[in-house]
Amino acid sequence: xxxxxxxxxxxxxxTFLLSIGIMxxxxxxxxxxIRDTAATPVLxxxxxxxxxxxxxxxxxxxxxxxxxxxxxxxxxxxEEEDETTSTKIGTGEKSLGGPKTVSDTVKGSWExxxxxxxxxxxxxxxxxxxxxxKIGKETVKEGKKYYSHVVNVTIDIHSYYASVDESKSxxxxxxxxxxxxxxxxxxxxxxxxxxxxxxxxxATFKSFFEYKTESTKKDTSFEGQLETMIKSFGxxxxxxxxxxxxxxxxxxxxxxxxxxxxxxxxxxxxxEASSKSLMITSIAFGLGKNEKASIISYDLDSFKVAIxxxxxxxxxxxxxKVSSIEVVPWVENTHFQNLVKISQPTFIVYTKPDGSKDQRxxxxxxxxxxxxxxxxxxxxxxxxxxxxxxxxxKANLCKKNIRVNWFKKDEATGNILNELADQYKNSEIYNNYxxxxxxxLSQFLLILSDDNIEKILKTxxxxxxxxxxxxFSISSLSGTREVxxxxxxxxxxxxxxxxIYKKEYREIESCIPVNQWIGEILNxxxxxxxxxxxxx
Length: 536
Description:
Elements: H1 2-24, E1 27-29, E2 45-48, E3 53-57, E4 59-60, E5 68-77, E6 84-91, H2 102-106, H3 110-118, H4 122-133, E7 138-141, E8 144-163, E9 170-171, H5 173-180, H6 184-191, E10 194-213, H7 220-231, H8 235-242, H9 255-275, E11 279-285, H10 300-313, E12 321-329, H11 334-340, E13 347-351, E14 357-361, H12 364-406, E15 407-409, E16 416-420, E17 428-431, E18 434-440, H13 441-447, H14 450-465, E19 467-476, E20 479-485, H15 488-498, H16 512-518, H17 525-529
Antiparallel strand pairs: 1-12, 2-3, 2-10, 4-9, 5-6, 5-8, 7-8, 8-10, 10-11, 10-12, 13-14, 15-16, 17-18, 19-20
Helix pairs in contact: 1-12, 5-6, 7-9, 12-14
C-alpha cells in the first residue's frame, strides 16, 4: 500500500514538473501569427503569446550569434510543375546550409511548401496565378496564332541561427530599474512575459520569362538555350556546352576568339528571343536596402546583374521576411532572475488535512511557473481594456468620418445635417479585411448609433471596475455557486496582495470571472469596416 502511495505521489510530482517545464520552455512560432508585415519582430523584443503582441525591446546592445544560410537557385517551366532542373549555387559564408535541392522542393520540402505558407499573401498568390493564366494564351499577330509559355527562375535564401547571446546581452537600464523597484507588473506590461531570442528569415527573387511559339507545346530547345545563357558566366561554360568548334578550330582558345564567339552566340539567341517576344517579369520579397543594387531586367545581361544584386541584398542578417521566431520566458533569463530576486527562499502557509496551519518553501520551478502564468494574465487584462477603449475611440472617429464625407450639408450655412446625402443612401463600404465583403452604409450607421458607441464605454467600465448585475458561476470541490463580478482591477490587486509568484490567478476567486469574460468575443463589425472605404 505504501509503495502504491509513493508511486502515485511520484507520478503527480513528475506531472507537475513536466507541466512547469513545458510552460517555461522556449516556444517556436512559425505560423500566421508572425506573417503580418505591420508588426516588427526584433531580437530581444518583448512578446506575449496570450495576446500575440510585440512589446518594447528591453535588452540593451543585443549581441547575436553568427547566422547560417541556405541558398537555392531553380529554373522551372510552369507548364510542368514536376519537371524541375536545379543548380545548387552555394551556402552562407559563415556555415554550411542543409543539403536541400529544388528537386526536393517540388516533392514538398520547406523551400516551396514553407515559402508558399509564410509568403502566401494575396498579392503573391495573384502574381503566381496571373503568370499561370498566361500559359497557352492565344494571341494573333500578322495573321498568325501564337501561344504563350512561361519559365520560372527563382532564388531563395533562408537564414537561421541568428540568436541573442544572453551571456553578452543584458536588460536595458530602464527595464532593470523596474525590477529593482519590484515593479514586476510594470516590467511585464512593457516587456511582455517572453522575449524574442532567435529569428528565421526568408527572401526570394523570382522572375518569369514569357515567350510565344506557333505551337501549343513549349519549345524545350529554346528553354534549354535560355537556361544555358542564364547559368553561363564565361567562355568555359560555352566551350563545355558546345565544344572547341567555336574557338576557331584550334585545340586552344584565344581570349579574343572566345569573346567573339560569345558575342556571336548572344546575338543568335537575342534574335531568337526577339522572334519569340521574350518578356521578363521580376518580383522580390524580403530584400534589404542596397543603394547600388538594381533588380530591373530588360535583357539577359541586365537579368544576370539583377540576380547578383538581389543575392547581395539578401545577405544582411536583418534582411528577409520573418518565417519563424523563438520566444523564451523572461523568467528563464539569468539577468532577469538576478534582478527580480526570484531565487531567494519563499515560504507559503498552507492548511494541513487536520485543519492546522504549516508552511513550506516554494521551489524555484513553481515560482517561475506561477509568475509566468500571472504575467500573461495581467497582459491579457491590459490588452482587453485597451481593445475596449480603442474600439470606442475608433467608432467615434469612424462616425465623424462618415458625417463629414457623406452626410447632407445645409447649402446656406454649410453645417452638416443628420442624414446621408441622397447619392450615398444606397452606397456600400468595403470590409477592410476582405474586399469581397461589403455592408450598406445606411446599415452600418445603425451599428454606429450613439447608444451602441456608449455601450462600448460602459462595457469597459464594467469589465475593469465590476458590475453588481453581472454574475458568473464558479466551480470548486464543494460545488458550483454564483458570484458577483467584482472587476479586473480587484483581481489585479488580489494577485499582487497574494504575491505575483506565490499564487496563480486561477486560484483567486475574484480572477475566475475575469478570465471567463476575457474569453467572450466582441462584435468585430466596427473593426472590420472602420475607417470606411466607399465602394465606387
